[in-house]
Design brief:
The protein has 372 residues and is α/β, with parallel strands linked by helices. It is 53% helix and 7% strand. Strands 1-7-5-6-2 form a 5-stranded mixed beta sheet, sandwiched between helices. Strand 5 and strand 6 form a beta hairpin. The longest helix has 23 residues. The radius of gyration is 23 Å and the shape is globular.
Length: 372
């Protein structure tokens, strides 16, 4: 017996608009969609479930009398002229927020203490003071990156130092594990969900790897200031908001100290490639820093910037490592560790662990066995 469901047509129209679709496109998949809108026919339960998955709307939302109110749980700053962020970015924020809420409760139940450095620089506007905090907290001296032969090794060390402090770093460029739902770099380079117990830091893994160091440093500045945010950081230019501007300046000074760059510049001049190797950042970060310090002019910067982007698109490096290593980067190191503990203590159902990770059955078991 087919079960038909009464649905408010305004909810149906809202759902397709939310998904960035339209009536003609949806009608190709659901030929009776216009009849649903007119009230001539009602969707069956199975049809509505299929529609829910197609437009990425929770099934329960479709049964409401009124359009649900949704909001982005963090400030999101964009230099690009779009009215709002995409559904893919929105759902990624909610997914990480869900993981964070579970992990926060788990840590509190285990009598873990809040992290002392979250918001430690909340009342500071001093770039040098916040940079010093970053170096002290993560045990990194001013020339730490110079100790490593490549920026890849420097980045790996930086990530390891950050994760030791109970900050979860997630690298992904899609929604969960859905390869058909890409998160574009020009919309989201990263975001951070600040929390006293377990901050979550998202980095778009589709971005050039050498540029990800800047994103992490920028987001760490947000954690020390105590304010969550998301950003596109187009042209490495922060949105014109005081915290964003401050975090950008902190990241730049942390990675490329002004005093040291000026000294190197005096000896070798405008050689972005060599300077990038010295500081273990991307050439783009060096160029942006040189522009900020008035070592080059605006035309020089954007001339280099446009040429650099074309090169990066041709030569992006992959982390490599296969499916399970990719999953570890998508979930971070800490989150699966605590999931494993909770499962062993019978404080988490496997069904809930599957929902939190997007992995199920034997795939989940193999992944968890690999991290223990």
């Amino acid at each position: 017996m087919k079960i038909e469901v009464e649905v408010n047509k305004d909810i149906l129209l809202w759902a397709i608009k939310r998904a960035g679709s339209n009536i003609p496109s949806i009608s190709k998949v659901f030929p009776k969609f216009e009849s649903w809108l007119k009230g001539d026919k009602k969707p069956t339960l199975k049809q509505l479930e299929k529609f829910s998955k197609k437009v990425h709307v929770p099934f329960g939302f479709l049964l409401l009398d009124n359009i649900p109110k949704e909001y982005i749980p963090i400030p999101y700053f964009r230099n690009k002229t779009k009215e709002k962020i995409s559904l893919n970015v929105y759902e990624t924020i909610l997914l990480l927020q869900q993981r964070q809420e579970w992990l926060r409760e788990y840590l509190i139940d285990n009598n873990e203490s809040p992290l002392p450095f979250v918001g430690v620089n909340a009342n500071s506007v001093s770039i040098n003071e916040i940079v010093k905090s970053i170096r002290d907290i993560f045990n990194l001296n001013e020339n730490w990156a110079k100790e490593f032969p490549t920026w890849e090794k420097a980045l790996t060390h930086f990530i390891e130092q950050v994760e030791k402090t109970n900050i979860v770093i997630v690298f992904n460029s899609i929604v969960g594990n859905n390869t058909s739902r890409k998160i574009e770099v020009d919309e989201c380079r990263g975001f951070v969900l600040v929390d006293k117990y377990v901050p979550f830091l998202f980095v778009n893994s589709g971005d050039a790897k050498a540029a990800q160091m800047f994103t992490i440093a920028h987001e760490i500045a947000h954690i020390l200031i105590g304010k969550s945010a998301g950003f596109d950081l187009a042209d490495l230019l922060p949105y014109n908001e005081k915290t964003e501007v401050l975090c950008n300046k902190v990241a730049a000074e942390f990675l490329v100290p002004a005093k040291r760059l000026k000294l190197e510049w005096n000896s070798m001049g405008k050689n972005f490639q060599i300077l990038a190797k010295q500081f273990k950042v991307s050439e783009l970060v060096i160029a942006r820093r040189a522009y900020d310090l008035k070592l080059i002019n605006k035309n020089d910067f954007f001339d280099f910037y446009n040429k650099y982007l074309k090169t990066v698109k041709r030569s992006k490096k992959s982390w490599g490592g296969g499916f399970y290593k990719t999953q570890k980067r998508r979930l971070g190191d800490l989150f699966p560790f605590y999931l494993s503990k909770a499962l062993q203590e019978n404080r988490l159902l496997y069904r809930d662990a599957w929902n939190l990770t997007g992995l199920k059955g034997k795939t989940f078991d193999k992944f968890m066995n690999g991290i223990i």
